Amino acid sequence: PVQWAGFHGDPETGNTVIQMTPGLDAGPVLGVQPIAIDPEETAEQLETRMAELGATLTLEVVDQLAAGTTRPVAQDTSLATKAPRLSKAMGHIDWSRSAQQIKNQVRALQPWPVAFTSWQRAEPVRLQIHQVQTVAYGGEAAAGTVVASGESLVIATGQGGLRLDVIQPAGKRAMQASDFLRGTPIPCGARME
Asked: CA separation (Å) from 90 to 52, 95, 114, 161?
């Protein structure tokens, strides 16, 4: 669920303490803690922050249980949704989506399964994408086309441009895109798929 909140660009998620019952996640709610999602936060960072905040919420609920002041609230099962299991295939970037949607995908799939694309040339090069930023760019290019290369690597999307800041070529370590480009130039007009 943490990854899916980021993937969909939700502005908020939260922790909930429930009473265990035979049904999966079906028990009454004993405590709720809304948590704002920072638009630059990865799933890994958010999950760490939620764990720390969740410990505080759990202690508050335990104190309420000890004092007999809890007020269990029945869950409305009609509002329940399931978060599908993540797979490596979900990391594949569809460049026809908007720059913001792709940025959300990159953030949400850290540290696993990690967003990726392939630079199309004689031998395609798989690139894992670790950090990006949405950018404006002038011109009309097909989604997945490199529109700036050199100090930065900018790819056209279905709406706007996406600057790739930290990438990881197959079999290598993650690095700044500018460092990769110094050793392996990617020309403007090249395609990512």
From this structure: 28, 13, 9, 21
Using one digit for the tens of pLDDT, what is the confidence trace for 59-81? 999 999 999 999 999 999 888 88
* pLDDT tens per residue across span 113-138: 999 999 988 899 999 999 999 999 87
The one-character DSSP state at 85 is: P
Nearest of 96, 95, 98, 160 to residue 129 by alpha carbon: 95
Q: Can you tell me the distance from the alpha carbon of 61 to that of 68, in angstroms, rounded to the nearest whole number?
A: 10
CA distance 81 to 64: 28
Distance CA 42, CA 66 (A): 36
CA 44 from centroid of its chain's CA atoms? 9
* C-alpha to C-alpha distance for 102 and 162, rounded to whole angstroms: 8
Q: Which two tokens stand for residue 26?
A: 């079906």
Structure tokens at 138: 């002038």
d(CA 54, CA 30): 13
3 CB burial (10 A radius; 0-12, 13-18, 19+): buried
Non-local (6+) Cβ contacts of 90 within 8 A are 109, 113
- CA distances to 51, 169, 170, 191 from 117, rounded to whole Å, are 31, 10, 11, 10
